[in-house]
């Protein structure tokens, strides 16, 4: 596609519910990144992939958060047993290779009630 | 701890006036530096980046930034702002090239730019 796309754009979840956020990177981009942005803050790095391999997940806040990119293209960020503190904008970015400019998607705004 | 600091949370500038947004970073090596802009309801758009070479870099929309190693700064400037420049601006550094422990970008908290008519 022309840019990074994310779905859904908005998600309202009840506390305890599992949510899955999808990212479709720019076609051909090797590296894919996930960030979380709380209100009034800058994005915070969560994890990233080169192809299908998860390179670094040290930014994931706890074991309720996981991500996968099984075919090296689309990625899913899953949050299990959501809590109110998980409410934030979740942003995905991709780059042609690791270390090159990251292009961001529009984000998914998650609200946990 | 490695960090990116944007000391101004809000800045108000009159349309047509010049602009400077401040960014300071704390890393041991020469970092890769970026400025992104976020308009309401939009994703983050790259304005410009510094990897190496000329310390004054030009970006889109008439923006420029200067890397000053001695001051650990990468301030964003524009000679004359337009009402459409009203947005949130983020400075970021790439860990990978700074000896950081994690990959990906570290962002500052952002500066909200308000344009007065």
What does this structure look like?
- The complex is a heterodimer of chains A (113) and B (117).
- By secondary structure, chain A is mainly beta.
- Chain A has strands spanning 5-7, 10-13, 19-24, 31-37, 44-50, 53-56, 65-68, 75-79, 88-95, 103-104, 108-112.
- In chain A, strands 2, 4, 5, 6, 9, 10 and 11 form a 7-stranded mixed beta sheet that branches.
- The model of chain A has no long low-confidence stretch (mean pLDDT 93).
- With 117 residues, chain B is mainly beta.
- Chain B has strands at 3-5, 10-14, 19-21, 24-26, 32-38, 44-50, 56-58, 64-68, 73-78, 87-94, 105-107, 111-116.
- In chain B, a hairpin with a 4-residue loop joins strand 8 and strand 9.
- The chains are: A mainly beta (113), B mainly beta (117).
- The A-B interface holds A 3-4, 33, 35, 40-48, 55-56, 58-59, 91, 93, 98-99, 101-107 and B 4, 32, 34, 36, 41-46, 49, 90, 92, 94-97, 101-110.
Structural class of chain A: mainly beta
**Beta-strand percentage range of chain B:** over 45%
| Whole-angstrom Rg of chain A | 13 Å
Low-pLDDT residue spans of chain A: none
């Amino acid at each position: 596609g022309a840019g990074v796309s994310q779905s859904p754009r908005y998600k309202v979840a009840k506390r305890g519910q599992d949510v899955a956020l999808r990212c479709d990177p720019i076609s051909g981009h090797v590296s894919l990144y996930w960030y979380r942005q709380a209100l009034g803050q800058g994005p915070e790095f969560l994890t990233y992939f080169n192809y299908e391999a998860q390179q670094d997940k040290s930014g994931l806040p706890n074991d309720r958060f996981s991500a996968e990119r099984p075919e090296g293209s689309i990625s899913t960020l899953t949050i299990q047993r959501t809590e109110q503190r998980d409410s934030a904008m979740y942003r995905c970015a991709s780059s042609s290779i690791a270390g090159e400019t990251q292009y961001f998607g529009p984000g998914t705004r998650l609200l946990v009630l | 701890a490695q960090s990116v600091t944007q000391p101004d949370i809000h800045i108000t500038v009159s349309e047509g006036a010049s602009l400077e947004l401040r960014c300071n970073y704390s890393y041991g090596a020469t970092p890769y530096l970026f400025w992104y802009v976020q308009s309401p309801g939009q994703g983050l758009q790259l304005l410009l980046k510094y990897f190496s070479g000329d310390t004054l870099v030009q970006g889109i929309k008439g923006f420029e930034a200067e890397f000053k190693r001695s001051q650990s700064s990468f301030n964003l400037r524009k000679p004359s702002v337009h009402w459409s420049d009203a947005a949130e601006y983020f400075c970021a550094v790439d860990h990978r090239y700074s000896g950081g422990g994690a990959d990906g970008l570290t962002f500052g908290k952002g500066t909200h730019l308000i344009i007065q008519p």
